[in-house]
Amino acid sequence: TLLFFTLILYVWQICLLICSLPLVNNLPPSSFRSSSQLTSSHGPVFAKVNRREGAGGWSPLVSDRYQWLEVDLGRRTQITAVATQGRYGSSDWLTGYLLMFSDTGHNWRQHRQEDSLGAFPGNSNADTVVQYKLKQPVIARYLRLIPLDWNPTGRIGLRLEIYGCQYTSDVANFDGSSSLIYRLSVRPSWSEMEVISLKFKTLKNSGTLLHAEGQRDHSLTLVLEKGKLLLYHQQGVSSSSGGQLLVSLGSLLDDQHWHHVKLERLSTHLNLTVDKNTQQAHVPAELSHWDIHQPILSNRNFHGCLENLLYNDLNLLYLAKKNNHQVSAVGNVTFSCAEPVSVSATFTDAHSFLQLPGLTTWSSGVVSVALQFRTWNKAGLLLTFDLPQQEVMVWLYLSEARLRLQISGGSGLNDGQWHSVELNSREDQLSITVDKDEGATAHVSIPLPLTADSQLFFGGKKTRQSEGSQECRNPFRVFQGCMRLLTLDNQPVDLIKVQQRLLGNYSHLQIDMCGIIDRCSPSHCEHGGRCTQSWSTFHCNCSNSGYRGATCHSSTYEQSCEAYKHKGNTSGHYYIDVDGSGPIQPQLIYCDMTEDRTWMVIQHNNTELTPVHSSPERSQHSAHFDYAAGEEQLAAIVSQSEHCEQELSYHCRKSRLLNTPEGAPFSWWLGGPAPGQVQTYWGGALPDSRQCACGLQDNCLDSNHYCNCDADYDQWTNDSGLLTHKETLPVRSLVLGDIQRPGSEAAYRVGPLRCHGDKNFWNAAFFDKETSYLHFPTFHGELNADISFLFKTPSSSGVFLENLGIKDFIRIELSSSSEVVFSFDVGNGPLEVQVETHVPLNDNRWHSVRAERNVKEASLRVDKFPAATQEAPADGHIHLQLNSQLFIGGTASRQKGFLGCIRSLQLNGVTLDLEERAKITPGVRPGCPGHCSSYGSLCQNQGRCVERASGFSCDCGQSAYTGSFCHEEVSASFMSTTSITYTLKEPYELSRNSSALPSSIYSDTTLRGENISLGFRTSQSPALLLYISSFYREYLALLINQYKLHSSRDVEVLWSRVTNLADGRLHAVTIRRLADTVYVQIDQDAREDFNLTSDVEFNNIKSLILGRVQESDELEAELAGLASLGFTGCLSGVRFNSISPLKAALLHPDSPVIVTGPLVQSSCGSSSPADPYAAETTHSLSGTRNRLSQPLVNAIRSDSALIGGLIAVVIFVTVSALAIMARFICSRKETYRTQEVKAAQPEDGHEFPFSSQVDCESAPSQNQKEYFI
């Protein structure tokens, strides 16, 4: 094998040497032409490398960009390299130049290193030979070199060499009514691959190139339409339509240059290649063999030449030339290529114009001007001239792709196609005709008195501002495009004479070539983005594609439900783009975030329990499952998830399942990657075990079998369980076999595919040394590169990522504590994109970075700060060529290393496995803890962030809310008889039971403050919202009231501004007290602060009651009557300090809670606060934004256990005005009072540091006071 490859390499090197022969040295003097020469000693014939004859090389008369040197190689030649050298013994050399090639000496074609780069580097002195090897050989007879730049202290000087070898080919010319027909004399055996290849050139933009017929009237037709190649599939020879379009490829193919076409049939699909671009299409089996008709006779005839028409290895043009019987010619087919001469002019920029003098015949009043043009721009000046007798100017211009001369004609003229314009004036009648028969004609009655002294300006107008200075003025924007076939009074304008300065004048024109480029073919717009263009650039419309950016490269969606969750989103349907900027399309998937784990749920067409009835006519029942996600999405979801599962259940009565333990299985299922593998185990068992869950657990109905159903009992039983081995998921189809016997009954259920855990999202590495780094294979992002990751660091600088090439590179680094820099070089010099955040990034919190570089621009975004962008040069290098390893967290030089964590690093949608590489790399550790510092704010409503190995979770134990972020309200509808009583332990029980519930501490604590929050909706007034009692006949009550409660005791009244609370709408109330300071927040109204006349205490809480109070003996008459009425309405999010009685009643029945009367869980309306860290736009089924609702009141975040003394508080919330009545009673402590108060220690991070060292003696001992607020 080694010898074979060595031989291949040797042959390849020989071929390169053979086609690298110098071609210029032995050419005769007649092969050299130039635009001009300084003297006869500086003529083009002396421009030979390493020769010293004459003046030692060619120099033109004037050194400007209109000069050129041309070499005629005598015949079409394969050119592989070009070398330049300065003029001998001088300061004259080129530093940059353009290369043009032609077969005829006209219609030149510019050669480009890349799609957008045309300039070649030249010399730095007069002696060194600089060779440039063409990436792809060029077939041409003529080469023209155009100087761009030269030594600023010298002039243009050049010696030249061209390298290549002889080129031979078979060519045929078709005149529009001729064709070749090839028929197979013997049908060959079927083969995996068939190939048709050819080259063609034409000036016509329409014609049929190829027609291939298969079986049953199926055929393929390759058609040139408007300069593009279209491949059609047809059925039926009489079909009047073009058939089904399979592929459209190429553009501007009517330029009279050779274009390569290859059509490959590979089994069941076709590859169509045009020049360097390939597209694939599927074809029917009837086209397994072809008959070739080339080209067929039709109303879209082909005018042009074909070269090297090959069917597999058979040269059909050679056979036709030799009169082989298999190939027959129809019409006039000649075996040489007729080259019509068409001289074009390219208007390249704002300074381009062409000036032509008028004709002497115009004095008769008959004027005719005609031309053809092609452009991508919607606007531009075509023609202008003066009418001195009328002191006016005439402007013929394009505007919004229509032609205008105060009158308008034609439309859609910026499609890159050739369009003809004729302006005719006769007997005061002016007409403009666009595209002759296919276009439109407009008329106007105005004279056009042009004379021989008139000057016509095409594309722009020259004006003289001052002596010796000129500029082009164009009020209708520049015309950038090509013109050809200019005629004045039907006389062709000789543009070659214009080029030689023998006719008219011009500036900034490229004559004898059309330099138009289709920047949308191939399109750089990805993921279905629509490409539009102008002369100098293109634009991608990404609407409805699901992607964004200059080339529609970056996905607008997240890659998993986990990512959506950690942007603050809740359960719902979201578009998931599993590979980010990769080729897999986004898919709408349900994200279940109700648990700590975040599940992706992929439904299929039948997730219900489906009965199967016995039938003697069929021995099996089969079911196929079509999933909402495509095959690529399914495979990627399963691969990147930590765990996947799918329920598989079989309910049976006299219907056996796997026929265990020895028999062949009656039933099986297909699972795993498409098309799936046969599986003979059931839910809950292990792969290849031929068991059900009961067999694995050894508890089947019949111990002789491994499945319950295999016992074959005449009673209903089932085998159910979860399939959890990702290699066998998803379930694709199911076959049930034992259903034909009389009395057999069965039902099956295949649940949705459920997966959780995004391995990519939490994949992280910790760099604890500046000299440590991870390395990966070279990053390949030649045209599009997107890099995204998260980082956290205490350091103010460090390199995140670096990849080097010979000259190119790409790097992302933290340059300071508040600046990230994205730098790169693709051959145009280093460029930097910087984002200054103005806030520190070295705060050891997670920050996101996303960098993208494409052919149009580079961009950088950090967190949610505005993105910075840098446009790419219009005509520069576009390919990023790297060859070193990719370094993460440092550089190859071990300088400027990164300290900290990098997570979820993705390059072009592919996640790098940092953890696996970190396991074997010194100085780098896998994983990175400490997520709560960044994501803890997602836990709402007193939820507590809990660190996990991969991520975090929210502990809602101290919150009145539930859900993954403690964001879902817990609410219920109350009737007047509904009562919820949350009972706390009596004081003496604490000493007997050290393992009492946390809430029991309130039964023997002294509270110097309360923290109350709840939401309510009701139309009842008066109404009791919350009642709290103590063992010392003290109480606290929160009421809605329409009246002020009078009492014989001392009263202090403070009035609130809030009104109309019993209006059937949802309201939120927050009340906080610390010692003698109370504040009340109602909905979003301004907070109200109150000061009590003394410090008060409340101790030994007995119970918390919502709704009706069953025992109200301790209440005074007015309040007792109100308590007995109960509450009718809805309560939500009820929280007293750290106790949530409503949540305990609904979700934790084992809590010390008693419920009487009807209690229905319902939704009062969302009252949770909006998440300030919510995601950007997320997408649900409706396509609208899915955001957390706005808060009615800011939640209180405190987990403090409160302690207090002897106090009772009554709070009234009135409809006419909010009244908060605080009744403080400090009575003499009796037998219930223990000698020591067990105080609860406050937890960290609380707003109210309640004291546990309070003595009731500091409170009023005898005088009982009431405060009405």
From TrEMBL:
Domain of life where this protein originates: Eukaryota
Q: Topology relative to the membrane, per the entry?
A: Single-pass type I membrane protein
Instruction: Using the record's annotation, list all stretches that form the EGF-like domain.
Output: 516-553, 929-967
Indicate the secretion signal residues.
Answer: 1-26
Q: What is its main location?
A: membrane
Q: Using the record's annotation, list all stretches that form the Laminin G domain.
A: 170-337, 343-514, 763-928, 985-1164
Q: Which InterPro entries match?
A: ConA-like_dom_sf, EGF, FA58C, Fibrinogen-like_C, Fibrinogen_a/b/g_C_dom, Galactose-bd-like_sf, Laminin_G, Neurexin-related_CASP
Intracellular or extracellular location(s): Membrane
* Protein name, as recorded: Contactin-associated protein-like 4
Source organism:
Sparus aurata (Gilthead sea bream)
Gene of origin? LOC115592007
